[in-house]
Design goal:
There is one protein chain. Helix 2 runs parallel beside helix 3. The chain has a 6-stranded parallel beta sheet with strand order 1-2-5-6-7-8. It is globular. The chain has 334 residues and is of the alpha/beta class. The protein has 12 helices and 8 strands.
Length: 334
């Protein structure tokens, strides 16, 4: 029997969403030097940037040159969803945003259609670089839902109109959208979102992306709630470790302060799969058990933050954990 080939994946923007092709190529080269076989293309995951066809070919060729396969990308929902308050980022997700020009959820039909164009642009990127899954955020303006209940129906009507318009385009390109569980958004609104959309759309178009770090911040009773509930539609992962957050910090009266703390605690530590890294609270054996049952194209994607003079050493450590995790999933499959 031949020896199992261990696969591993880490996102392209592990040390920030850099946009110079010199920096992007350096990041990909470092992933290859560390031993990674796969990646999730993360550049321009936020904002309204449109890739030209030539850039899509460039992304394809840079990945091919370094022997890295992209089996997923992180698409943009349009606009900048974060602002800086007192030097810290906070999400602008409690009410509908009106300053975004490309937004597939927008009430403004021109902006919504521009948002559809942005989604199709990322599907084209997928097709060019060989990725089959497109992770997507869908920020939920939940305070608007509470204050103006009629706005919820309008919001989801616009979302469904956009998804109806891109569905055939995605299927023809061989691309599935994977909606990600989010931070700074209460679990009950995310449950409502996923249940509604997964009931409407088939699994050849729409699935789920599980972010372990977000789950440990927002799913207070069971951090594995979304992983268990939507395992059969799990097409992508953002695997990271953190130490969660206290109720006192999460449920502050000042919403800006609360969201700031959530983002600060979204640590993006390297998953502590084998217990040697000394931090992190995710049960990776349990996660591997569920991923082994999911329709997930392995390897699972790590999403970590790595920087500093020992960047390459950290990447090497991340690679070791990713290979160990791949073996763990494989053992549960067999």
């Amino acid at each position: 029997m031949s020896e199992l080939k261990l696969l591993s994946s880490c996102e392209t923007d592990y040390n920030s969403d850099l946009h110079s092709w010199i920096d992007i190529e350096r990041q990909i080269r470092n992933l290859a030097d560390a031993g990674f076989t796969h990646t999730q293309w993360m550049q321009n995951w936020e904002g309204e940037y449109l890739y030209s066809t030539s850039e899509m070919y460039q992304a394809r060729d840079v990945l091919k040159h370094y022997g890295i396969r992209a089996h997923s990308i992180h698409a943009s929902e349009g606009g900048k969803r974060t602002i800086t308050v007192n030097g810290q980022k906070v999400f602008r997700n409690r009410h509908r945003l009106t300053d975004i020009r490309k937004d597939y959820t927008s009430k403004n039909e021109y902006c919504r259609l521009a948002g559809v164009d942005l989604l199709k642009n990322r599907m084209d990127l997928c097709a060019h670089i060989g990725a089959e899954v497109m992770v997507l955020h869908m920020q939920l303006p939940y305070e608007m839902f509470e204050e103006q209940p009629e706005e919820k129906d309008i919001y989801y009507r616009q979302v469904m109109k956009s998804f109806d318009e891109v569905k055939d385009y995605a299927v023809a390109a061989g691309v599935r959208i994977a909606l990600e569980n989010l931070i700074c958004t209460p679990q009950k609104y995310q449950d409502e979102q996923f249940d509604l959309l997964f009931d409407r759309y088939s699994d050849d178009f729409l699935g789920f992306a599980w972010d372990s770090g977000h789950a440990f911040l927002m799913c207070r009773e069971d951090p594995y709630h979304f992983l268990k509930k939507y395992c059969d539609r799990l097409y992508a992962t953002h695997l990271q470790d953190n130490a969660s957050i206290s109720d006192e910090l999460l449920y502050q009266e000042d919403p800006v302060a609360a969201d700031r703390e959530v983002l600060l605690h979204d640590a993006h530590w390297i998953p502590n799969v084998d217990g040697t890294l000394g931090r992190g609270i995710v049960d990776w054996e349990l996660v591997a058990k569920y991923l082994a049952k999911a329709p997930l194209d392995l390897p699972a994607d790590f999403e970590v933050c790595i920087s500093g003079e020992d960047e390459l050493e950290q990447l090497a450590a991340c690679h070791r954990q990713a290979e160990r995790f791949y073996q763990m999933i494989w053992d549960h499959k067999n």
